[in-house]
Amino acid sequence: xxxxxxxxxxxxxxxxxxxxxxxxxxxxxxxxxxxxxxxxxxxxxxxxxxxxxxxxxxxxxxxxxxxxxxxxxxxxxxxxxxxxxxxxxxxxxxxxxxxxxxxx
Length: 104
Known about the structure:
This protein is α/β, with parallel strands linked by helices. It has helices at about 5-15, 30-40, 50-65, 85-90, and strands at about 20-25, 45-50, 70-75, 95.
């Protein structure tokens, strides 16, 4: 099956353009891939990760590709909160992806 067909079909089905999402673990790996996919579908993404450098690179790359992505370095497992303005910006929040892992 053609990859662009799959993405287009998902886009038509879910109609996420203009919606908002928080994606944890977005600095690299699966989280970055999820942030990229959502961003390419027109979703406003708040990307979170413990690795500030990786997060900055992901945010830069996705914004340069035409996305609307904001980065927040956060250790959510330790109770770091997103800025209140992010929550207002995102309301209502139809997508929350918890892909981050706990490092010991």
